[in-house]
Amino acid sequence: MRHFKATASAMLLGAASILGTAAQAQDLPGFDNWDQVLEEARGQTVFWYMWGGSDAINGFVDRFYGEPLMEEYGITLERVPLADTVDAVNQVISEQEAGADGDRGTIDMIWINGENFATLQQADLLYGPWAEGMPNSALVDWENPAINLDFGRPVEGMESPWSSAQFHFMYDSARLEEGDLPRSYADLGAWIAENPGQFTYVAPGPGAFIGTRFVKQLMFELSGNHEQWVGPFNEELYNEWSVATWRELLSWEPNLWREGETYPVSDADMKSLFANGEIEFAFTQSPAGAGPDIGAGLIPPTSRAFSFDNYMIGDFNYLAIPFNAPNKAAALVTANLVLRPDRQAAQVQPQNGFCCGWAIDVNRVTDAGHQAAIAEAMQNLGDAAADPGRLAGALVADIDAEYQSRIEADWQRYVLRGEPLPE
C-alpha cells in the first residue's frame, strides 16, 4: 500500500490538487450549508473533552485553537481534561440512559480513537456522518485505509482526523553509519546476528503498544502482504503467521541484549538503554523523529531517525461529536479549524508542544500562505527526522484490535515464557 503522503511529503507540493473553498455541507446533519454552521456557532462555547495529562498539549490546544476560535469565529473553547478517554465515553452512555438526547448533553467533542470510538459508534451515540462535509475535509485522503479505518473499524464519517503517528527507528549517528542501517526485518535479523547483545525491543503488553506494533510489522513482512490483514480478525491467518513470527523472534534471542532473558517493559526503558549505549536502536512515532527526545535530554544529540522500506504502521487520532452535543455548530467549526493547513503545520513542530503528524494530505493544499507554512514546518524538523519520502512510502494501516490482544498474550506465552509452539 502506498496511499499515504501526509506524514511528511511537503517536497511534493508542486503536485497539489485543487481544494474547493466553498465545500457543500449537505452531509452535515441538521445544517443546510456551511454559512449556517458559522452563523449558529458564533457565541457558542465548545466543550472539548480530551486527555489532559500533558501540559504541553494542553497549552498547544489553548494557543493554536482557543485563540483563533474566539478571534475569527466568536467561539469560546472550554477544554475539559480527562484522566482517560473512557470517562467521556461513559458520560455519554450515562446521559443517553438518562434520556438526555437532542442537544441536552454536556460534551461537544471528544479526542478519541480505537475502542472508545468503537463503543460509541456501536451504541449509535455519535452525531453524523459529518466528517466529510466540512470545507477542510477536502484536504483529507479519505481513500487511505490508515484514515478511513480506525484500528480496523470503518470511520464512516463519524469522526474526523486530528493528527497521526508512525512507527520508525532511531540510531546514534556517532556510532553507526547511515549506509549500515537495516531497512527490513530480514536485514534486522542479519544485523542482530552480526552484532550480538546490541538490540532489544519493548515487551508487547498492555500499556506497551509500541512493542506490539514492532511485532505486528514483523508479522506483515513474514506474510508478505499487509492488505490481507485489513478487516475483521481472521483466526486462520493469525494462527498461520503468528507461529512463524514467534519462531523468528525466538531465533534472535541468543544475540539479543541479555540474550533475550529480559526485555524493556516500556518505550522509556528502551530509550534509556539506547542513551547509555547498551543497545544501538530505539523506537519513535514522532514526525520529528529523534528531535523531541533530543530536546528533552533523553538521548544523545547525534541521534537520528530512520525507516524501513515497508510495513511501518501509522495511525490517526480523531475528533468525534456525541449525538447529544449541545453546541454541534461550534464543534464542527473547531474540527474544521484543526484541519486548516497552518494549524496542521504548527502541530508537527516540536517547539509547539504537540508534535504529532499530519492529518491532511499536504499535496492538496493550494493556498500559497499555507504551502509556505507547511514547507517551513518541514524544514524545522531538521536532521533528526527520518527521510520523509521513505517514511511515507512505508506506511501501512494498523489492524483490528483483536490482533493486538492476541499478539500480546501469545508473545508472553511463547516468547517470554518459552512454552512450546503450536504444531
Protein described:
With 423 residues, the chain is an alpha/beta fold. It folds into two domains: 22-164 and 314-359, D-Maltodextrin-Binding Protein, domain 2 (3-Layer(aba) Sandwich); 168-312 and 397-416, 3-Layer(aba) Sandwich (D-Maltodextrin-Binding Protein, domain 2), CATH 3.40.190.10. The chain is built from 15 helices and eleven strands. It has helices spanning 34-41, 55-73, 86-97, 114-122, 145-148, 185-194, 209-223, 235-252, 267-275, 291-295, 328-338, 341-347, 368-381, 388-393, 401-416; strands spanning 45-51, 76-82, 109-112, 149-150, 153-154, 159-166, 168-172, 282-284, 303-306, 312-320, 395-397. The strands form three sheets. Strands 1, 2, 3, 6, 10 and 11 form a six-stranded mixed sheet that branches. The chain has a three-stranded antiparallel sheet with strand order 8-7-9. Helix 3 packs parallel to helix 4 (114-122) and helix 12 runs parallel beside helix 13. Residues 1-26 have low confidence and may be disordered.
